[in-house]
Known about the structure:
By secondary structure, the protein is of the alpha+beta class. The protein is built from 5 helices and 4 strands. The mean pLDDT is 97.
Amino acid sequence: MELYEGIISRRSIRNYTGEKVDEEIITSIIRAGMYAPSARNRRPWHFIVIDDRGIMKKIMEVHPYSSMLAEASHAIVVCGDKEMENGPGYYKLDCSAASQNMLLAAHSKGLGAVWLGVEPREERIKAVSNILGLPSYIVPVSIISIGKPKKYPSSLPERFEEKKIRRNNW
Length: 170
């Protein structure tokens, strides 16, 4: 798949077959995340791979939009490290770039994936941190749900909006 086409055709996929995704593919998706840009190349991220149904169930109990984890092969929690970031709050930007790279990598492998926001919701941060036993300086930013899609959308919506473009000033 050509890069531009992959960016335009990627969609949030929430329905999976339940079939397991190979670990090499999961590793390649994380590798793509690690190649995201980060402020001063600090790379303040950590990735927690979840394939344990019990842990996924616990996350579904605390995250209101995570029901797709019931059929997902894996979830990857993208965490920011406050001790490694370039400055206050930069881990959020860096981990978001890593999350987007991972979504695109999953799409390029023919998988479905969706971004579940954790940061900035304090109740979600606390609950996911407790489930995963995270130290206080590690913050869960997002959860990427990954699986083999039951079906992929056949049409693409038009999202280009000329009116949202300004030149040189507002």
